[in-house]
Amino acid sequence: MTAKINTVVFPVAGLGTRFLPATKAVPKEMLPVVDKPLIQWAVEEAAAAGCTRFVFVTAPEKGAIMKHFSPAPHYSDTLKARGKTQELELLKAGLPENAELIEVHQDQPLGLGHAIWCAREAVGQAPFAVILPDDMVQHSVGCLSQMVSAHARLGGNLVAVENVPADQTHRYGVLDPAGEADGLIEIKALIEKPAPAEAPSTLAIIGRYIFDSEIMNTLSRAIAAEETGAGGEFQITDAMSQLIGQVPLHGLRFQGTRYDCGNRDGFLEANVAFSLAQAQESGNKSLQSKLRRLLD
Ligand code: G1P
């Protein structure tokens, strides 16, 4: 029986250059999908998976993210005085009652591996999850919940994976699979952002991970030795590769539809798909048919 996953890390220090000018003053993780910012969808997915410690790896100019999860007396005082209980509930921004929030800063853009390493003290010696809020997965059971169930059986390092078009491998960490059973793929090698001709498969990592705490020691060694990888950055994919043979490494073919909200098309599609889900819940038939036409 492996340890429970209490801690989740959100690497959110990056600039959202693809969304300029919208992201000039507003962090890209604060852009809304329907009625909630991307980061809140990610926090809610982690809370549903049982996480209570939320670590944000952020940058000084992205203060709006922590503000979103902090008390807002200018709202709560007024809403209390007016008896608006539903709206007061919304101010929790998806956090569970017992949530512990931790902010750490990444002072230089040195890659995803470096961003995760910035959370090492907050993470400690326990296994932990990482969510990249740009990747949204729509399913009744959240992607991280699916992973937590698999991790309880497998332990080690676990990544969420899906097949991507063959000409898109250069955008992802790509798996060399050793075998597959029940949606779980044993991984014998990983390559970060291979050109299509070099890719060992079209199975790509999407932004959900569960790590053995040993990953932090591997990252510390790579950073001390200045061993950078693709794009001259410290890659989390390389750290996982180095642990193959010491720590089990699996890919989970998750249930659900993934939207890449790191680009405009994926972001707009996510807005339509999540709106449609809400319109289905509320029974708004005319909105449903309009949104379905947009998705076709
Ligand atoms: C990162 C990872 C990559 C992964 C991707 C998922 O890349 O380095 O391995 O496949 O996230 O979204 P980035 O999108 O930060 O370039």
Lay out the secondary structure:
Elements: E1 7-11, E2 32-33, E3 36-37, H1 38-48, E4 53-58, H2 64-68, H3 73-81, H4 85-90, E5 100-105, H5 112-117, H6 120-123, E6 128-131, E7 135-138, H7 143-154, E8 157-163, E9 173-181, E10 184-192, E11 203-211, H8 214-224, H9 236-242, E12 249-253, E13 257-260, H10 264-282, H11 285-295
Parallel strand pairs: 1-4, 1-6, 4-5, 8-12
Antiparallel strand pairs: 2-3, 6-11, 7-13, 8-11, 9-10, 10-12
Helix pairs in contact: 8-9, 10-11
Bound molecules: 1-O-phosphono-alpha-D-glucopyranose.
The site of 1-O-phosphono-alpha-D-glucopyranose has 12 residues, from strand 11.
What can you see in these coordinates?
Helices cover 34% and strands 24% of the residues. With 296 residues, the protein is an alpha/beta fold. It folds into two domains: 7-262, Spore Coat Polysaccharide Biosynthesis Protein SpsA, Chain A, CATH 3.90.550; 263-296, no CATH class. Helix 8 (214-224) crosses helix 9 and helix 10 (264-282) packs antiparallel against helix 11 (285-295). The N and C termini lie far apart (45 Å). The model has no long low-confidence stretch (mean pLDDT 95). Bound molecules: 1-O-phosphono-alpha-D-glucopyranose. Residues 112, 132, 135, 172-173, 192, 204-207, 235, 237 line the site of 1-O-phosphono-alpha-D-glucopyranose (G1P).
Overall tally of structural domains: 2
Strand content: 15-25%
Number of strands: 13
Query: How many strands, what sense, and barrel or not for the largest sheet?
Result: 9 strands, mixed
Q: List segments where confidence is low: pLDDT < 50 over at least 5 consecutive residues.
A: none
